[in-house]
């Protein structure tokens, strides 16, 4: 998330990028509500996506996966249901500006 603020200026300065993708992203950045939603979605993807990626790569293997499949999928379920989401919490704290009802 530390480079998120660099994306919009990069898009505005580089016209030679994929036209459809650039136009779509510029439409998002031109709408403050959509830009905020995108930032929150990326934070959630970073926080919750790692366990999914790790489990997926592991389960692609050629070995006897039946013995470890349950453990890997349990780890994914645990991380989604219980683990902390530091990027999402930071975004919520920033957007709430001290209002605990909004933060929660």
Q: What are the key terms here?
A:
104 residues; mainly alpha; 6 helices; 0% strand
Instruction: Identify the quaternary structure here.
Output: single chain
| Strand composition percent | under 5%
Q: DSSP helix count?
A: 6
**Chain-averaged pLDDT:** 82
How far do the termini sit from each other? 21 Å
CA gyration radius, whole angstroms: 18 Å
Class of secondary structure makeup:
mainly alpha
Shape: flat
Structure notes:
With 104 residues, the chain is mainly α. It has helices at residues 4-13, 19-30, 32-59, 66-81, 86-96, 100-103. Helix 3 runs antiparallel to helix 5. The longest helix is centred in the middle third of the chain and has 28 residues, at 32-59. It is flat and about 50 Å long. It starts with a helix and ends with a helix.
């Amino acid at each position: 998330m530390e480079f998120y603020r660099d994306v919009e200026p990069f898009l505005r300065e580089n016209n030679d990028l994929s036209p459809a993708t650039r136009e779509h992203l510029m439409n998002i950045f031109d709408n403050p509500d959509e830009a905020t939603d995108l930032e929150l979605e990326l934070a959630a993807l970073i926080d919750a996506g790692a366990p999914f990626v790790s489990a997926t790569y592991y389960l692609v293997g050629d070995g006897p996966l039946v013995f470890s499949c349950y453990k890997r999928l349990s780890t994914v379920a645990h991380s989604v249901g219980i683990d902390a989401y530091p990027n999402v919490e930071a975004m919520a704290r920033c957007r709430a500006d001290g209002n605990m009802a909004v933060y929660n």
